[in-house]
Amino acid sequence: MGALPSKVRIVEVGPRDGLQNEKNFVSTAVKVELIGRLQEAGLRHIETTSFVSPKWVPQMADNAAVMAGIVRRDDVVYSVLVPNMKGYEAALPTKPGEVEVFGSASEAFSQKNINCSIAESIERFAPVVEAALAAGIRVRGAISCALGCPYEGEIAAEKVTYVARLMKDIGVQHVGIADTIGVGTPRKARKALEAALAVYDIGDVSGHFHDTYGQALANIYAALELGISQFDASVAGLGGCPYAKGATGNVATENVVYLLDGLGIETGVDLDALVDAGAFISRHLGRTNGSNVANAILAKRAG
Ligand SMILES: CC(C)(COP(=O)([O-])OP(=O)([O-])OC[C@H]1O[C@@H](n2cnc3c(N)ncnc32)[C@H](O)[C@@H]1OP(=O)([O-])[O-])[C@@H](O)C(=O)NCCC(=O)NCCSC(=O)C[C@@](C)(O)CC(=O)[O-]
């Protein structure tokens, strides 16, 4: 195990992963304000929305309006999820900085989430990747259920390598290893990441850890020890996937920043401003903040 990275890129997924499962529609204005607050807090990579079927995920139906409403900064990458060419064609005019195709290491989850097999998903992604790269847009891929599946249970590391290889072969530049249901522990996280590292370079692999079993920070630490330097996180721990029942949100961004600050690892994020952004969206949703770091800071502020 080498030294920990000196710098980490946090991809803020709250506006997409965090909100997609909300039953009540969150207005476009609130989504836009949240994104504004997140970038003011120093986040430079934000998963902004997804171009998926509004029948499947109604909360993301205002994707184009969100992309039109945000006040863009040149130094922020605005990333959008795209499952097929229909989504890409809708996303392109909104000028995303990155498109993210999302596959799975589990056949069953692939069917539930995107209504096709792993092989079919790659066929759908291939023209998206080709078109995006030709347009100069970065392409990231997510590999869901890399540490376990709500339908199949254990997922072999070989399955992660297999999907990573398929993604690499069609030109996907970076893969995110996703613990969709938050069941992983550090050893599993390490195995899944190493499975992707058999195909991708260290700078092109990131971690996406849901915190259902409270293991996400431990998994991030294990990933840091491997040299991984990019992680997805969701402000106030918002979220869950509509097709992974019972899974809670992604690891809270505030918790990740606190950990990395403590380790002396640079993120560029101002924790206080981030806590304000999390308090804003939690207030709006009428939800207890899902970040214990945020709650501790808010309690301290209240005296
Ligand atoms: C993928 C599809 C569209 C396939 O859905 P399908 O039904 O197989 O698609 P289809 O091509 O047969 O089309 C059916 C209808 O959907 C429309 N359609 C088709 N494509 C699009 C599109 N892009 N945008 C808008 N509409 C679309 C299409 O026009 C048609 O409309 P109709 O004629 O019935 O009115 C569907 O299954 C879907 O939208 N699924 C939602 C997937 C999703 O958003 N899941 C959550 C995000 S993934 C996630 O959270 C995991 C991640 C990334 O965070 C990592 C982790 O933690 O694991």
Can you describe what's shown?
This is hydroxymethylglutaryl-CoA lyase. The chain is an alpha/beta fold and about 300 residues long. It has a single domain, classed as Alpha-Beta Barrel (TIM Barrel), CATH 3.20.20. Helix content is about 45%, strand content about 15%. The chain has an eight-stranded parallel β-sheet. Strand 6, helix 8 (about 185-195) and strand 7 form a beta-alpha-beta unit. It is globular, with a radius of gyration of 18 Å. The mean pLDDT is about 95. The chain binds 3-hydroxy-3-methylglutaryl-coenzyme A (HMG). 3-hydroxy-3-methylglutaryl-coenzyme A binds near residues 20, 56, 90, 115 and 242.
Q: Could you report the average pLDDT, rounded to the nearest whole number?
A: 97
What binds here, in terms of ligands, is: 3-hydroxy-3-methylglutaryl-coenzyme A
The coarse silhouette is: globular
The CATH class label is: Alpha Beta
- The low-pLDDT segments are none
CATH architect. name = Alpha-Beta Barrel
Radius of gyration, in angstroms, nearest whole number: 18 Å
Give the ordered list of helices and strands.
EHHEHEHEHHEHEHEHEHHH
Spatially, the strands of the biggest sheet line up as 1-8-7-6-5-4-3-2
Instruction: Write down how many β-strands occur, each being a DSSP E stretch of 2 or more residues.
Output: 8
The largest β sheet comes out as: 8 strands, parallel
Residues in helices, as a percent range? 40-55%
Distance between the termini: 42 Å
Structural class: alpha/beta
